[in-house]
Amino acid sequence: MQFKKTSSILFLTASLFTLNVAAQQKTKLTQYVDPLIGSAKHGHVFVGANVPFGAVQLGPNNIFEGWDWCSGYNYISNTITGFAHTHLSGTGIGDLGDISIMPATGKLLLEKGKTADDENGYLSKFSHQNEVAKAGYYSVLLDKYQIKAELTATERVGFHQYTFKKGTGNPHIIIDLIEGIGWDKPVSASFKQLDATTIVGHRNSKGWSDDQRLYFVIKLSQPIKNLVLYDSTVVKSGTELSGKKLKAVVNFDAIKNEKLQIKVALSPVSSENAILNLKTELPGWDFAATVKNSDAKWEKELSKVNIGASNTTKKVFYTALYHTMIAPSLFNDVNKDYRGTDKKVYKKANFNNLTTFSLWDTYRAANPLYTILHQDKVSDVVNTMLAIYKQQGKLPVWHLMGSETNTMVGYHAVPVIVDAYLKGYRGFDVNLAFEAVKQSAMQKTDGIDYIQQLKYIPADKVNESVAKALEYAIDDYCIAMFAKALNKTKDYQYFSKRAQLYKEYFDKDVQFMRGKLADGTWRTPFSPVASKHREDDYTEGNAWQYTWLVPQDVEGLIKLFGGDKAFVNKLDSLFSVKAELGENSSPDISGLIGNYAQGNEPGHHITYLYAYAGQPWKTADLIRKIDHDFYSSKPDGLCGNEDVGQMSAWYVFTAMGFYPVNPANGAYVFGTPLLNDATITLAGNKKFSIKVIGNSAENKYIQRIVLNGKPYTKSYILHKAIVAGGSIQIYMGNKPSETWGVKPEDRPVSTK
């Protein structure tokens, strides 16, 4: 009996241990990440394998069919032309797609093919039923060859594993250095076989980014039978080749154990550094362990925010958080070497050099999110920007692969740098930072010369004048705040005046921001709903959308309207007046509620403006609608371009209950939390916990707030309160509160 009792206890203990382990496994946050969310329609997200902020984004490319294939992949496709090692996520322009590898069997086909049914192309069809996409892992069955493709990655190495069907003839891989995404075209390339399992080379290309230079090493898990090199489709003798349009075919006698593994390491500097990256990051061949390590890296980053919510909301939230960490991506080697914008090699830098700065988008919320969740990355971002400033003579505008694309309007490296400084970051040269932000504002392009004279930008002299001027005013406000903090009185006074120039474009008669001609008259005819892409006074928007782009001085904007009541009436109309954009409008204007466009970044702060007029409950109504209508766990779960994390950063902030309306004043405006609770793990292992009491679909209005045990009546919270650690309780109800956030002294203030 004693033996049976002991056995029962041991069995029970073992069972409890097993259940506990299972429970721990179930709580992994990476299980909620679905990289396919946002891969349909206009989301343009990257689908494939990578690690947080990694240099490698290894994933499948479809046949390119236009704008919705900017990342190389769209969910509606059923073709794969190869697996490439660099991708953008959520941009409106296609580029990258470097070093495409396609496994194949049977007859050698050198062209990728033009359609899904092209028998003369090496592409393959696939089914989503045979596709798996996770954080750090991607797999798919290539129908044409019955090859299972699996991908994972480290920071600088892409790891392929291909399982071939037993007995298939002529197994080979096609390495295509011609293929690129969108505008990307090769300029020069090379292959060189070093030994039986190693190939090195480079691919220089020109696309959206003007001068891209990438070096690689390809390491195979079994010896090459023979390597055949092609210049276009012409066979070249030997094991080394340089040219412009190169391909290589690697043939094997047979695939050992039906599994072929390939490691591809990248470097912006040299093949030698690519080899160093490979040896340092992935010396072995354990694919499963690499998948596990990649998953662990994602888990570590995702665990910075632990939330309580439904599984569907967790899926949307953690996928959004995942999307905020695809870029900016590393653009250096393990020894800290990198290639600068001036194309010189900088050895052993004292920071991590980065690339892919979609600043017109990310300055609004993605970069502020880093100041909370990725405090170790903020100085790298700023130091990269300052290095770019020294190398190209100005801060980055939209920087990609060591080249300036000059895409979009504004000089939005400024708010990123200033926000970092004002939040206490000092891991960079402050004097150089001020010099750089001031230089941005003293250029002579795109109407900035008018701003320098404290004048408006004439609409008949400069295209997109209103959008440019409003964005400049935001940046100039940031420079003024930086100058004030550094006791630079004259600069503070000058840039404060420039920050107020937004008022020059406000027509009080019609109550819109609109273009003003050189003779001082308003441009006519005028339609507040019409939008002509790249041909009017706005950038991807109309007057309804741009009239609210004054996050640096919402109080001043309210005064232009004549007070809170008039301001709110007009703001209400934004969400109800029918959008009639016209045939020539930008496809970026999406996710519409009336004329409000959630799918495009200039409007991301607008729903939160009600708090400035003492009606925060209207923000709650709209956020719940946006959440319901425009964010889901399906492939079409984003209503517009992801734009390198900004569309998702809006959701991450909003779900936690607050948002940085002003991108550089260290304040976050409350909305309505979508979560039941959240715990943010900060630097130094401090924690900030959010508990939402009584939250439901009906109970969407904040009634009262308790911060660190004390009643908190303000409708905003300061950055310093969050990063200090502590707790906040938010009490919800089904009716708007008559007291919380209503009094003038409790409303957000632009300058803190």
Quick summary:
This protein has 752 residues and is an alpha+beta fold.
Structure, described:
The protein is α+β, with helices and mostly antiparallel strands. It has a domain at 33-302: Beta-galactosidase, Chain A, domain 5. Helix content is 28%, strand content 22%. It has 18 helices and 38 strands. The strands form eleven sheets. A nine-stranded antiparallel sheet has the order 6-7-8-9-18-13-12-11-16. A six-stranded mixed sheet has the order 19-33-34-38-35-36. α4 crosses α17 (646-656), α8 runs antiparallel to α9 (430-441) and α14 (554-561) crosses α15 (564-574). The longest helix is centred in the first third of the chain and has 25 residues, at 2-26. 55% of the residues are buried. The model is unreliable at 1-25 (pLDDT under 50).
